[in-house]
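Hello,

Our lab assistant flagged a job as stuck in the queue for most of the afternoon. It eventually completed. Since we weren't sure the result was trustworthy after the delay, we are filing this so someone can double-check. Below is the sequence as submitted and the structure that was eventually returned. Let us know if re-running is recommended.
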Amino acid sequence: MQKVLAIVGPTAVGKTSFGIECANLFNGEIISGDSIQIYKGLDIGSAKPNKKELSEAKHYLIDIKKANDNYSVKQFQDLSREYINKISNDNKLPIIVGGTGLYIKAALYDYVFFDEDSKDNQYEDLTNEQLYNLLKDKDPKALEKIHINNRKRLIRALNIYEKHDKGISEIKDSQKHKPIYDCLIIGLTCDREELYKRIDDRVDKMIEEGLLKEIEGLLNEGITFNNQSMQAIGYKEFKDYFENNKTLEEVIEDIKRNSRHFAKRQYTFFNNQLDVKWFTNKDDALLEVKKWLI
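-- returned structure --
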């Protein structure tokens, strides 16, 4: 099996620098596992690697989308696996670095996602009852979670059956939720008080580096707070500022608070959904990677 190293952990814990260190030590290249760093122009608020860091190791899936584009976990899964193959074929180590837990799991595990943008409208002329009965013949188990009045989900389930020749239920039941690679998932962590201090310091640094100006530039380009990219922590909080509902100081506190809450959710996902080996000491983490590579 192809070897893939993943470096995860809460926001502000030091994943970027550790990923670069691993890339240089173990002949690797980095795939960003972050849902916001893919957007051009969202640099400061996403804690995107700077020019110096990008020059120190090859990075993929950074700055590949415009700020008004949409991006899905399915797209990430397809692209990340494509780059895993490319990097492996070049006899280098693929290293996924990021804090978006679902993205990491989608890349490494036997997750199947379905096309949410199907253009197949062959069922549009049928009534809800006809759709329900048709799905009852094809994938009756799916109806345990789909109400007869939920027309969109009925049509989606039928389209998936036509495309895969099996129902959503059968496809999901066939998934073992196990890695499809020989992967090592390293989790970086620290005690909560230290983490919260790092988060606060990072937010203050983002403000100093010009986060407000970055967002003003995006808005001047026609990007709005309704765009998917602007739903991220560090960006969405500024909506109240630009609508004169909050001061800059209040927005900064909102970002810090939301970042702390997000860190808690990250820990919950990583601990419940991934087989993570946690380290507070990066030297110990490096030794673990060396042992795994032997």
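-- support follow-up --
The delay was a queue issue, not a problem with the job. The result is valid. The chain has a mean pLDDT of 94. The chain has twelve helices and six strands.
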